[in-house]
User: Fold this.
Amino acid sequence: MSKSLQLRTCLGCGQRAPQPELVRLAAMPDGAIAADWRHRQPGRGGYLHQERSCWERFAARKGPVRSLQRSMSRAERQLLVARLRADSEL
Assistant:
């Protein structure tokens, strides 16, 4: 029996892609949003392509992030994108 492929929507570009191709953003219990590269953190999650253009689109948006059930300012989004860049260069 084959496992069904789970599609997720990118928070940056809005395109759907298989879950393993995306970076998960996890809403932590303390209110912080963190990159979950292994898709293992508990709680609400949202997804981004592993492309800087999607990260920049996400950072430029304003308003709440429905999938995370959180509001994020542009400064918070830019800080998260900076951490994604740093993590991806390791």
About this structure: The mean pLDDT is 91. The helical segments are 52-60, 74-88. The first strand starts at residue 7 and ends at 9.
